[in-house]
Amino acid sequence: MIMVNKLNNRYRNIESATQSADILRLVIPQISKHNLTATPINYTVWYEYYLATNLLLKQAIDEHLKNGEPLTNEVLASFFDDFIADPDVDVMKQAQNQMLRIIAILSETTKATDSNASDYHQSLQTMRNRMDESQQEITELRNKLDQITVEALSDALTGLVNRKGFSKAFETVMAQNYEGSSSISLLMVDIDHFKKVNDTHGHLVGDKVIKYVADTLSTLINDQGTASRFGGEEYAVLLPNTSLNDAHSGNHQK
Hints:
Elements: H1 3-11, H2 17-33, H3 40-51, H4 55-66, H5 73-83, H6 89-113, H7 121-133, H8 135-152, H9 163-176, E1 184-190, H10 194-201, H11 203-221, E2 226-229, E3 234-240, H12 244-249
């Protein structure tokens, strides 16, 4: 289940304040009633609930309410993780952007419908206040997901990108050079006799060697390419706009 596709399919028709008003009329009172923060996650869970296509989520919330248990921010976050979220980092970031777009629509809808919403004016005002209060949480969510993305694509020891990060960089470079208008060089680097270093001096020294080579590669490419720790003592270096001769000589484009 890919969350971005789900969100895109379910939210693709919510493009205007008018279209989102019906959903808003149902969601706002629930967020107010249960004293929830107006975060993208909470809004998404309630939206899915009222959409009634995510049957497992609806059943879980109905059962929770039937048992008289409180619906807290933490509970809705667990429902989001269990029934909506996909663990893939890229999917999470795209879904986050999608949810923030929905929050923007929600905010505009609140302004547009104030004059025709006397029956739930108090709920609207509460929602608006909580949206203001939750801006810091939304910012923190964005920062946290950005950090998760960096960590997921980076090697903890060397600070270089890992194999997954390198694959993404490779795909980007190839897409930018779709017509083959410039040269691209790929270097594979390996530390000779590395096992002997570990056996003789220990893994702490071995780690320092790995990091030293990584730092050297980073310095040599000078942010003009991508260096990655591809395996234990293996590295891959991607040099766009660099011919094979220039890659050998170290004269990559700056």
